[in-house]
Structure formats: C-alpha cells, structure tokens
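User: Some background: our group keeps a shared notebook of sequences we're curious about, and every so often someone picks one and asks for a predicted structure to add to the entry. Today it's my turn. The entry only has the sequence so far, pasted here. Could you supply the structure so I can complete it?
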Amino acid sequence: MTTPQQLPAQFAHLSPFIGWSLATETERTRMRNTSAMSDIIAFKDAMLADVDAIVAYLNAFPLEAMPPREAALMHMLLSLAEVAPAVEAYNQPGVVDGYAFSRFAADENFIMRPPI
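Assistant: Of course. Here's the predicted structure to add to the notebook entry:
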C-alpha cells in the first residue's frame, strides 16, 4: 500500500488537485487528454493563484534532493505547464487536429529532464 502524496503545509489548500502530481511527462500527457476541460480549468485556476509563491518556495530546494512533499508540488507545477496549451491555445484537452496522444512516447530519460 502506498502512502498518499502530501503537500507542504502552506499549499495544503491545493490538496484537492494532488491527482495532478505526476512524475512523468507521459502521465501528465495522459491526465490532460483524459480529463474534462472543466477539471483542467479548475486545476489551472487553483495553481495560477499561487504560482509565484510556489516557484519562490521551490527555488529553495535543489532538484536532485527535493523532499517528497516539495517534489509532489513540483510535479503539480509541471502539470500546470502541461495543461497550459489546452487552456490557452486548444480550448480542449487534446491538440487541435493532432494525432492520438497514446502515440506520443516521451523519452523519460532525456538528458535535459529535471532529476526529480
């Protein structure tokens, strides 16, 4: 049995969106493409309200040694980046006139990928 992810205390109000705390690009892409647009927008709105505070807070931790709660918050920040095009450009979860997201194979070991 795995322990549910938790967030740092000052960001506990974002806990309803902990499902967006996904460690890989593949998971984040799947989540965006299988979520209702209303859920994506709710997540985006909640994160954007605190994005400056989140970034300032996470900047105090090295990527290669980020504690679990902070890593969970960082993964949510990466999910925010994943959903941004859906909200700002596509007005839908998937890429407009794009191919099936299941065909996308992210290189999860890419050298420039953050170490978290």
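Suggested note for the entry: The chain has three helices and no strands. The radius of gyration is 14 Å.
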